Amino acid sequence: MKKYISNTLSLLTGSLFLFSCSLNRDPLSDYSDVSQGKTETGTQVVFKNRTEVETYLAGIYQQMKDRQEHWYLDLLLIGDSHADNSYAGTTGAEVLPFENNSIEGSNSVVDRDWGRYLEDVGRANRLIIYVDSVADKSLSDTDIRTYKAQAKLFRALAMFDMVRIFGSIPVITTIAPDITGDNVNEVYPQYFPKQATEEEAYKQIERDLLDGLADAPTNNNGNKTLFTKSVARAMLAKIYAEKPIRDYGKVVQFVDALTADGFDLNPNYSDLYAMNASNTDLAQRNTKESILEAQFTAGGGNWATWMFGRDLSNYDNNFTWAKWVTPSRDLIQTYTNEGDQIRLGQSIVYYSTTWSNYYPSNNYPFMFKLRSAFNSIVKLRYADLLLLKAEALIQQGSDLSGAADIIDKIRTRVKLPKLSAAVRSNKDALLDAYLKERRLELAFEGQRWFDLVRLDKVEPVMNAVYAKDAGRKAQVYPFTKNSYRLPIPQPKIDQNPNLVQNPGY
Q1: Phi first, then psi: what are they for 70, rounded to 5°?
Q2: Domains, the chain, ranges and CATH?
Q3: Tell me, what's the pLDDT at 37?
Q4: What's the confidence (pLDDT) of residue 304?
Q5: Cβ(453)–Cβ(78) below 8 Å
Q6: Element (H or E) spanning 77, and its range?
Q7: Cα 50 to Cα 331: distance, rounded to the nearest angstrom
Q8: Rounded CA gap, 363 and 360, in Å?
Q9: pLDDT of the residue at 317
Q10: What sign has the CA pseudo-torsion 263, 265, 271, 273?
Q11: How many Cβ atoms sit within 10 Å of the Cβ of residue 202?
């Protein structure tokens, strides 16, 4: 049951329509980014008791599994295919522009993501706002703060990905009431919100994360599906690495706090993705490296793998249609040049196909980190955060040796040699080594594009890759500073004239 206004459906209430002639408000369309807090039948959302609150909260957690498009699939398309890690995989008009840099505001993927992220924000807002008035007096103030904290962490996760993709976005923390003749001047603008600046968006994310850090559940090593204090710490480290609110000291602080929480690298990299002996399930869930993951039971509906990788429960199961996100020759060559056979083997698998969009059909590479229909999709893992600490130390320039030690720890795990003394002592060389290490460690985890953007490496890396990667579709537009943000969906701008398109589109 939808308790939000979807901006893809007919949204505005009858009251808005009834007043349209007399209130002289334009446009009067079907667009809104703001939840009204009502069900499809017009019933007000009210939590009567603890059970209803917890059922609603469980529904929020379920979104990480049910809405795999914008939580995982599209992030891989943006993070890896829009970077140099992979090709689009198909010739489809919705995905190819990410490979050849021809994304426009009409693209259906960016339109879907914009709407989905705002729906997630609206879903979180309803719990945050309405839980205060729950009728069940058995709920303590602590209980209520804990529920709110988890919803705020969910909102922060959604807004973080959205702001990294689009830049200036609406920052919505309220629920718009029904419009009446008495309140139209105040309420109408809430249905057609303006964008906040990137810094304003990050400040709201920061507030949500700090609230979550104060009141969210503590880390549970037996259940990494929870929005915990550790998730808050991980996300705080990630936002403080971003340019609008950059604070490298806090990056180090929160990564160190994760270490104190007990997170560490798994000794064996392959154990992160290994299957059990009978190929019926993962060999291990809730590893000490996993901070947040969506877990699927055997056969439990992780359909994202059908879009990307092969079915390990039935290794001979061939597909007759091409997959999104096909590993690039440039990435494969980078693994090969580095002698990185362990991570190569855990990232890429070959088999025969019925298509040959990028490679011969008898030896076609697939991404391998998303496994079969019973895997866990890891949203946050410690290796990513530990490497962010190395980035902070490099950028601060005060502890190059400490940064190099972190990179060496990542490399030693996959049996690669430590960095040379010349690299360890030179800031620019160390930053290059760091960026390559993140690429090899985190390939097909949706990180590469955002790394290039964060470190201002988009132009030198992406404008050069087309010449050295013979399999990549021809570049349509060069990458510039305007490329760092994807276009605001044109259908949303058409519906809401307060939205402003990003420069260059």
Answers
A1: -85, -20
A2: 14-216 (1.25.40.390), 246-314+325-446 (1.25.40.390)
A3: 43
A4: 66
A5: no
A6: none
A7: 50
A8: 6
A9: 67
A10: positive
A11: 23
CA-to-CA dists, residue 449 to 106, 240, 337, angstroms: 21, 18, 21
Task: Give Cα separations from 374 to 152, 294, 329, 419 (angstroms).
Answer: 28, 11, 29, 37
Q: What is the pLDDT of residue 217?
A: 97
- pTM for this one? 0.90
Rg (CA), the chain: 23
Tokens 């709920």 locate to 139
Cα 198 to Cα 107: distance, rounded to the nearest angstrom: 22
Cβ neighbours around 413 below 10 Å, total? 17
Q: Residue 443 and residue 63: Cα distance in Å, rounded?
A: 24
Residue with tokens 């309220």, as numbered in its chain: 174
| Chain-centre distance for alpha carbon 435 | 19
Write down the pLDDT at residue 376. 78
b/e per residue, 130-165, with b = 16+ CB within 10 A? Answer: bbeebeeeebeeebeebbbbbbbbbbbbbbbbbbbb
Closest C-alpha among 388, 462, 390, 464 to residue 423: 390
**What pLDDT is recorded for position 68?**
85
Give the Cα-Cα-Cα angle 108, 113, 119 (nearest 5 degrees): 130
Q: Which two tokens stand for residue 132?
A: 């205060």
Tokens of 481: 């500073």
Q: In sequence order, which residues have a C-beta less than 8 Å from that of residue 51 and are 6 or more positions away? A: none
d(CA 464, CA 330): 11
Query: What is residue 373's predicted lDDT score, i.e. its pLDDT?
Result: 55
Amino acid at 351: Y
252: helix, coil or strand? helix
Mean pLDDT for back-to-back runs of 10 residues, the chain (505 residues): 30 30 41 47 71 96 88 93 96 94 97 95 95 90 97 98 98 84 76 93 98 96 94 98 98 98 95 81 86 81 65 66 88 98 92 89 85 73 98 96 98 98 98 98 96 98 97 97 98 94 97
Q: DSSP letters of 288-306?
A: TTEEEEEE--TTS--THHH
Residues near 68 by beta carbon (within 8 Å), at least 6 away in sequence: 302, 303, 304, 377
